Amino acid sequence: MISKYSDLTIKQFLNCKLISEMQTDPIDRNVRLLAEVSGKSVDEVESLPLTELKAKLKYLANIEDLGEVGKVRMKFKVKGKSFKVIWKTQELTSGQYIDVSHFTKEPDKIIYNIHNILAAISVPIKYGLIQQKYDGAKHKDIADLLYNHMTIAQAYPIMLFFCKYFAELDKAILTFLVEEGKKALKEVEAHFIPNTVG
Questions:
Q1: Any domain includes 187
Q2: Residue 64: predicted pLDDT
Q3: Which of 40, 51, 113, 124 has its Cα between 20 and 30 A from that of 142?
Q4: How far apart are CA 155 and CA 145, in angstroms?
Q5: Quick one: pLDDT at residue 44?
Q6: What is the mean pLDDT of the chain?
Q7: pLDDT digits (tens, 9 = 90+) for 83-110
């Protein structure tokens, strides 16, 4: 059984989040959470002797704290595969930027796309040294690998860092585009007005 919340995989973390949000009955919620973190079925958890169930539920209450956010690591390994995070948006390919924009367009669903966003901003590293190019065709495979095997302790600091940086950059890009649009409009007006008079 998992001893800390931060040891949950992204999949387990998101399942726990959904269970916490969807299950209103506290007993049912705790049984389902216990099943998720222990890798057992709900039926198996419900068939435990009451004293054992109580002990495990007490244990469950102690692991629900994510704890302090760890250090952001721009290189990570999941199931023997190494990756590097491309956190500067100006270094992302247009395909990566489009994918990230797609998975971040609904702010309330970003957490449920953590694996997809990480797959879009991370590139494989061969032999621990050679950075590969982003391949959109492999996005789903990488996202699935991260979803099923990356711990939330690995993913969470990267996501906090990237989302904060990405949001600030998006504001800057929007401001820049508005200013460029105003300049272009003035240029068009300057050329339009002399040519239409007389």
A1: no
A2: 54
A3: 40
A4: 12
A5: 93
A6: 80
A7: 998 877 778 888 888 898 888 888 788 8
> At a CB cut-off of 8 Å and minimum separation 6, what does 89 contact?
97, 100, 165, 166, 169
Q: 94 in a domain, yes or no?
A: yes
Q: Residues near 42 by Cβ (< 8 Å), separated by ≥ 6?
A: 31, 32, 35
pLDDT at position 109 is 84
Task: Verify that 117 and 151 share a domain, yes or no.
Answer: yes
**Domain that includes residue 94, residue range:** 75-181
Pair (101, 161) in one structural domain: yes
For the chain, give the DSSP string. --SSGGGSBHHHHHHHHHHHHH--SHHHHHHHHHHHHHT--HHHHHTS-HHHHHHHHHHHHHH----S-----SEEEETTEEEEE---GGGS-HHHHHHHHHHHSSGGGTGGGHHHHHHHHEEEEETTTEEPPP-GGGHHHHHHHHHHH-BHHHHHHHHHHHHHHHHHHHHHHHHHHHHHHHHHHHHHHHHHHHHH--
pLDDT grade for 81, boundaries at 50, 70 and 90: very high
Confidence band for 189, pLDDT divided at 50, 70 and 90: low
Is-contact 115 150, C-beta < 8 A?
A: yes
